[in-house]
Amino acid sequence: MKKYRKLWVGLIIAAVCLVVLGVVILVDQQSRQSSIKLTVPEAEAVVGEAVRSLPLKVANGSVSVADQVKVTVHEVTYGQEKDIILQCTYETVDILSVYQREKQAIFTGVYGYYLERSQAGTMVSATHILAWMGQEMADLVAEAPALSGEITLTLYDTGGDAPELWLDDDTVNTLLGGLLTVRNDVNATETLTWEGEQISIKNNNSLRRGISDCFGLNNYSSDQPDASTPLMRAWHSFANDFYRNFIEERRWTYLTKGLATTLAITGLALLLGVVIGFVTAIIRTTHDKEGKLSFLNWLGTLYVTIIRGTPVMIQLLIIYFVLLLPIGIEKFPAAVLCFGLNSGAYVSEIIRGGIMAVDNGQMEAGRSLGFGYVPTMIHIVLPQAFKAVLPSLCNEFIALLKETSVAFYIGVADLTQGGLKIRSITYSNFLPLIAIAAIYLVLVLILTRLVSLLEKRLRRSER
Fold it and tell me: Is 44:71 a contact under the CB 8 Å cutoff?
């Protein structure tokens, strides 16, 4: 029974996950219809408010047109995608036909107004042009012929207190009597005829902006409003954030390049730390066992005390900004040196502890066989000590990998800096920081697994 315990536990967990997933999908499917129910007058009020909110407050031309729009809702039906379908008739003014007929007169009049004020020495701003155009458009709207027809509008339940009207370009252009076409033509016009001569207004920003602002509309999107279920909305939000943070403009390369830098710093610092730690450990154990190398032992003890007693970030800042930057040393070698020195102090204590743990009888046995101190240490003591401390050394290497994450404080483009670069571009905190943590976690899990395999191998060799 114990043999299949893990299998049964796995099956139970899988069954629970399937049940939870089924419940989530069921709830998700049941929430596809709109929870908002509207009467015909309520639907008309929503549509009317949406149309009135389209013009910018200063866009007198757009406001004049929107004030003439009337939508009558005749039927309200409900779809299966949180949509509310309205069968309507609309009444508006045909501003497009008036504009096409009076375009030359409009541009000639506004340019004449511009020249008159300019020649009088009065500053002509876009606001002045907008005020003149607003009055002109109000008069044209009053004279515009009526326009009516049938239209199908769609509201979407996006989770707010009121449904959202889908205002695509065609809908806006229809309800406002062609105003969108008028605005696009105004923005594209770069020349006008004045007293039989073609005048370029391409670089006349005040004139062009004043005319354009008269037809200004608030931002609206032709994309269908997101009325998906909460589960799908969360997924869409995550997918959009993922694309924006990593896929768009290949921003994932910030992480891959940073990861390469982090691994390079870790590898070089590891080699430096092992060399420094090994030499320091030999000096200190030699002093402890033989009473020699007193001065070097004092230096080694001072080095270990300082490194272990101060934060690695402070060490990094001191080494780069105080010691190396004034002599022109770059950031990358400064980071390698700092982390190598920091790791060396801990490695030295691990190795020294392993050497001191070897029974003194091993040293005496080597000496009795005619070996000197150094050969005995190399051939007898160190192999035993290294085998005992190897798992601890591997754990120190894992800690070194994580400690390199502070290298971005001196501007090294490591993994952390890569994630923060994405964060500064997208103003998103969650995904870039989670990505950094996940990559470090995967690296640590891989190294931990390797250490575990090494420890098992050492235990088998002992048996």
Answer: yes
Q: Tell me whether residue 461 is exposed, middle or buried, using C-beta atoms within 10 angstroms of its C-beta: 0 to 12, 13 to 18, 19 or more.
A: exposed
pLDDT score recorded for residue 212: 85
pTM of the model: 0.61
The answer to whether 138 touches 64, Cβ cutoff 8 Å, is yes
Q: What are the backbone angles phi and psi of residue 251, rounded to the nearest 5°?
A: -70, -15
pLDDT of 385 > 70? The answer is no
Give the end-to-end CA distance of the chain in Å, rounded to a whole number: 29
- C-alpha–C-alpha distance, residues 347 and 277, integer Å: 5
Quick one: tokens of 178?
């062609």
Residue 390 has pLDDT above 90, yes or no: no
Query: Measured between alpha carbons, how far is 345 from 392 in angstroms, rounded to an integer?
Result: 14
3-state secondary structure of 153: strand
Mean pLDDT of 255-284: 90
Give the chain's domains with CATH numbers: 40-224 (no CATH), 249-462 (1.10.3720.10)
- The Cα 12–Cα 8 span in angstroms is 6
Judge contact between 66 and 132, C-beta under 8 A: no
Residue pair 355/385 in contact (Cβ under 8 Å)? The answer is: yes
